[in-house]
Inverse folding.
């Protein structure tokens, strides 16, 4: 087995040709080599390999056939790779006996294998010296095809051949400045599977997280953080397309990463973490207005025509906020297209990979994630129960902080679910459902406060010709939401009262 440590970037096709010319001060160049690479990816119709985090590829290289098994593509930069030369284009599972495929390759599997998609790539590769590290820079152009569906490929890949991962990021930052390269954590295999499922162009949801029980907390955080970053980067195109669900899912990815930072705060380096949190907060703030106004339009403004609001007033307020929605989505798109966003992605992944716990917390690395997870969940649930006992007395800002606390517990349940056995997962599912109801109620209350401000401003600043009609429509919205608020507080209080500490403990052999 070999291990490859690599970063992938998307680059505008018109700038790809300049990549190999941009050596800068961070890398000494060698003459590039060229290859034509035609690769076929195999799996079962139910994608058994993918479900186990594996890919099986047969690549034709200058008349030879090379079979490659890859593993571990979702936990970080480094993946296990097993290569064997085979006789023809069909997979040879006998050659995979000493790879992770060995546990899946028995029985009827050989008969169930089928080609799912193919990549046809022209690659130009160049060796770089960055300080004492050797890095290969590859520029790929071509297509991914699945039946009649296809998608263009225009990307660059940096692979650390020897040396230090910090030098990989040093070259990555230099290339971002010179070419506008944007980190893309999806492999060609992942994009191929998305093409097969016809799911590559829309909003991408969070992927399941699988943690091994023996991991120390810092390594478990690394796995979780990579997963959240993948959700963020996977929704860049939908945000550029001003897709509401794409904005929402990128915000979810950002919230999950910020929640993970909070949950693992005692094993993360303080100084660099503070800087990362500042940048994540900036991006969250750039996306927030688009989500807030979209929810206001969809859930509050559009339904009011069914409640006796004159069409003139409904039309006026809808027109006003439709314009604001467009501006807010443009702001979100501009943020994703900025150099600051591209730098943020590199900084975050470099921080995930290179960060180490501060000295005083080295003791935490002696524990497994199972003990750590149990303690985190227990402590967070107890605090939420205590604060929830006086929900009716909380000010709006205090309720907002409680909602964030509940949301972090819910994300923690998602992060740690794989550590529990069947009974524990059932208890976690019940807890997650209760947390979801609390979060939904408190979230609606928080939305009502924001909507009240928006509606009041709309009424006060409307042009004279529409002021009365718009004020009436705003009043209807505020009145309906105020009426619903009491029921939401009661529902949240009831579910908070039922919130209990977990009886199940993580499975040490998970």
């Amino acid at each position: 087995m070999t291990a490859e440590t690599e970063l992938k970037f998307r680059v505008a096709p018109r700038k790809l040709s300049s990549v190999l010319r941009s050596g800068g001060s961070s890398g000494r160049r060698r003459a590039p080599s060229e290859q034509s690479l035609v690769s076929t990816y195999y799996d079962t119709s139910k994608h058994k390999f993918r479900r186990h985090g594996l890919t099986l590829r047969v690549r034709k290289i200058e008349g030879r056939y090379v079979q490659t098994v890859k593993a571990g593509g979702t936990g970080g930069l480094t993946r296990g790779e097993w290569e064997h030369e085979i006789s023809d284009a069909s997979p040879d599972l006998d050659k995979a006996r000493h790879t992770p495929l060995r546990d899946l390759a028995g029985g009827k599997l050989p008969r169930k294998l089928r080609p799912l998609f193919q990549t046809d790539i022209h690659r130009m590769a160049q060796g770089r010296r960055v300080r004492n590290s050797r890095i290969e820079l590859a520029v790929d152009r071509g297509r991914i095809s699945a039946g009649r569906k296809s998608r263009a490929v225009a990307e660059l890949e940096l692979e650390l051949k020897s040396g230090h991962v910090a030098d990989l990021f040093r070259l990555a930052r230099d290339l971002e400045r010179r070419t506008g390269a944007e980190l893309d954590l999806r492999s060609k295999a992942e994009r191929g599977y998305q093409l097969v499922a016809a799911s590559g162009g829309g909003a991408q949801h969070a992927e399941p997280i699988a943690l091994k029980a023996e991991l120390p907390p810092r390594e478990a955080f690394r796995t979780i953080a990579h997963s959240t970053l993948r959700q963020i980067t996977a929704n860049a195109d939908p945000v550029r397309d001003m897709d509401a669900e794409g904005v929402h899912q990128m915000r979810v990815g950002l919230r999950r990463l910020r929640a993970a930072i909070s949950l693992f705060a005692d094993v993360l380096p303080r100084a660099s973490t503070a800087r990362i949190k500042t940048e994540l907060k900036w991006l969250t703030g750039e996306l927030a207005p688009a989500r807030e106004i979209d929810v206001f339009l969809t859930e509050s403004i559009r339904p009011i025509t069914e409640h006796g609001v004159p069409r003139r007033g409904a039309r006026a307020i809808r027109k006003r906020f439709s314009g604001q929605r467009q501006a807010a989505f443009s702001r979100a798109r501009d943020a994703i297209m900025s150099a600051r966003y591209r730098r943020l992605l590199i900084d975050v992944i470099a921080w995930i990979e290179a960060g180490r716990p501060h000295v005083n917390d080295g003791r935490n690395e002696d524990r497994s994630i199972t003990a750590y997870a149990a303690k985190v969940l227990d402590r967070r649930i107890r605090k939420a129960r205590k604060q929830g006992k006086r929900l009716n007395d909380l000010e709006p800002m205090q309720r907002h902080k409680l909602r964030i606390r509940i949301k972090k517990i819910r994300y923690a349940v998602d992060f740690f679910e794989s550590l529990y056995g069947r009974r524990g997962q059932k208890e976690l599912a019940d807890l997650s459902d209760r947390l979801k109801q609390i979060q939904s109620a408190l979230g609606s209350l928080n939305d009502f406060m924001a909507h009240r401000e928006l509606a009041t401003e709309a009424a006060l600043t409307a042009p004279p010709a529409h002021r009365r009609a718009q004020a009436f429509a705003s009043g209807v919205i505020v009145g309906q939401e105020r009426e619903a608020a009491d029921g939401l507080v009661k529902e949240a209080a009831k579910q908070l009262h039922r919130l209990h500490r977990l009886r199940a403990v993580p499975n040490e052999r998970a």
User: Anything to note?
Assistant: Residues 356-364 have pLDDT under 50 and may be disordered. The domain at 259-498 is CATH 1.40.20.10 (CHAD domain). The beta strands are 2-10, 28-29, 33-43, 54-61, 64-71, 78-86, 114-130, 133-146, 149-162, 182-183.
